[in-house]
Amino acid sequence: MDYGPAPESQKEAQAWLEQRSRKFGLFIDNEWTSPGETFACYNPADGSQLAELTQASAVDVARAVTAARKALPGWQALGGHGRAKIMYAIARLMQKHARLFAVLETLDNGKTIRETRDADLPLVARHFYYHAGWAQLLDEEFPGHRAVGVVGQIVPWNFPLLMLAWKIAPALAAGNTIVFKPAEFTPLTAMLFAEICQQAGVPAGVVNIVTGDGRTGEAIVGHQGIDKLAFTGSTEVGRIIREATAGTGKKLSLELGGKSPFIVFEDADLDAAVEGLVDSIWFNQGQVCCAGSRLLVQESVQDRFLKKLKARMDNLRLGSPLDKSMDIGALVDPIQKQRIAGLVDSARAEGCEVYQPAGCELPATGSWFPPTLITGASTSAAVAQAEIFGPVLVAMSFRTPAEAVQLANNTVYGLASCVWTENISLALDMAPQIKAGVVWINTANQFDAACGFGGYKESGYGREGGREGMFEYLVPVSEDARPAAPSFKKPAKPDTEFTPSADPFAVDRTAKLYIGGKQARPDGAYSRAIHGADGKFLGEVGEGNRKDIRNAVEAAHKATGWTKATAHNRAQVLYYIAENLAARGAEFAERIAAQTGSKNAEKEVQASIERLFYWAAWADKYDGLAHQPPMHGITVALNEAIGVIGIVCPNENPLLGFISLVAPAIAVGNRVVAVPSEAYPLSATDLYQVFDTSDLPGGVVNIVTGSADELARTLASHFDVDAIWRHDGSAAGCAEVEKLSAGSLKRTWTGGAKGRDWFSTAQAGGRVVLAHASQVKNIWIPYGV
Ligand code: NAI
Fold first, then answer.
1. Residue 202: closest CA among 95, 125, 88, 99
2. Residues paired with residue 754 on neighbouring β-strands, in sequence order
3. Contact assessment for residue 359 and residue 350, using Cβ atoms and an 8 Å cutoff
4. Class assignment of domain 519-624+641-775?
5. How many angstroms separate the alpha carbon of residue 256 from the centre of ligand 1?
6. Would you tell me which of 102, 244, 403, 585 could form a disulfide with 398, CB atoms 3.0–4.6 Å apart?
7. Cβ of residue 213 lying under 6 Å from some atom of ligand 1
8. What is the ipTM of this complex?
9. How far is Cα of residue 53 from the mean position of the Cα atoms in its chain?
10. What CATH number was assigned to the domain covering residues 261-454?
């Protein structure tokens, strides 16, 4: 028996558009501007024009930013409860108008009504409810934090309303005001949302919505009055935004592309896995950043699984998105169809087998692409590496779990992953090894407002949802109190003459680089003289270069045992370093005093010992969370190390500054390439002897001395460095590393021209530092028999 048509009515949605003359201005300060220069949006299922929207100019964006700035004090003065009530009203109104939203979204985007009605809209309401809760609890649960200010938010077209909710709800809860831009293909539900804001009593200027293409996006990104940018979209534009914001001090979160692995082990429930795969790659026509677009299936069940999969593909129904029984709707725009077809053709040309259901007829008008399975592609083929963003699955096989991990991680992306096996022990062994922000075990594409979502590697940084998502819209108040970084003074008259020591036992001691647990001579065989505060020659350190950084990064990469070690074990090593530093405290104090002329040298050594204790204490207490989203199961949020972090240390407090940055990084399992204070590096080079006697495995901390600018540049451009921190007070240097970090989208933590009171735990400690040193992975574990 075949299905009959079950069309959802579009009458109300078309009437809503008609009432607005199918023409929209911008929503600024709670008012609609008259439509200016316009562009059209279309129904991708039949190509018909739906409405005209205004292309917001830089002047329009500036007006929206001004309105948002003006609204900020009033919005914050409402307090958590006041904001919670308004957000609750938004959630209720969204539910009341859910059908209109769902139909409008389907008309504008081409995704099926089943998805907009059953997935997008319930999740949108849930986001506003959940975040109304955070507004209510803000003071209690986020003490010592304030709202960032005016935030700019730019979203893509694949989940227009859901991405709006993911962006706007946490920003409002935290007390920010907003300039929001929907994607040019799909602006309509944002227009309806603006009306909901008016009805819910959102004060004027708190939410401003400007429409337009990338030029409007650029105007938001470039506006000086924006304090934070949140972007979801292509990795390419993410990179542009990272570069454009370098050195501006704007807070940034990026949710970018993916090429997520879907791993099926031989003992998996294969029928359930096929259904999971349908949700994973054919949901929203595969136009999903976390789509399970790479199937990795264990060789022993490959044929059986692919046979089942093809049979299921033959049953997928493609057609009018408003028909309630359709599985696959239209692609957002003909341009996407061309992109996808091009990639599939290239796979054919390379000799891959391309399977598409024979009975799948594409409608004559609109943009459509059939469900597609590609087999026989090499791991380096374009279809195996590029984000196709369409209903195209690439299948490969593996033999062992280790090979599955290797294949899963063979991508520049790291957004999501699925593991299918009935062996829970195997699943939980795989989960930490996969470099992705989400791991779904025996399930796929699950989302909830309580569980953070976001990427590893080039899939971006920052999280949306959960407690961690709230931090993206908050700033610690301690940041406001940071002093200007002191400019270090070079000694007036360096005394480079060698003065024989009065000490009869004196032997020349040359500080070397410290790489892979060994002292290393600098590759270039150059050294630089270090003089004391009084101009006296104190010694020499190696002049590190690119090659030294490369060696140090390689050594850090090899030291994976540190990341796998228990937190208890890492804490023990940090305590041991403290113990050995204390044993040589007087010597370290003397060295600090000689270099900097500080009268506080002993205090600095004391504080450094205490700081080591502090981070050792944290090492086994930075626990994750167990969420209970609305499913039968739990979601475990783990705080994981980022990988290899390059750290350019502050000039002031050469020992305490170094320890305050390196210790938290290694406490949570990272490996470090540290560039010590350029002015006073000897405190750090003295430390490697302490490390050698404290059971710190080789490669965990590597020290390269020399020019901070040059070494930072090399670290920031290095593709195997996962994060870079720069805190030496050089504003230009910080801007440069942020710009260079765009290449591999590494995480950055920079201090700009400001310093930090390194003695103060409020400024140099706490969860804020740990958050920079870690990334959250959410592992979804449904249960039931
Ligand atoms: P896109 O990244 O160009 O657009 C996303 C948003 O950014 C839109 O609102 C757009 O107007 C805005 N934008 C474009 N250029 C900008 C700029 N220079 N500055 C600021 N904002 C800018 O994505 P597009 O062109 O719509 O899709 C292209 C490809 O990107 C897709 O085929 C897919 O591979 C990928 N993509 C990934 C998404 C994800 O969620 N990971 C979402 C959308 C696209």
1. 88
2. 484
3. no
4. alpha beta
5. 9
6. 403
7. yes
8. 0.96
9. 31
10. 3.40.309.10
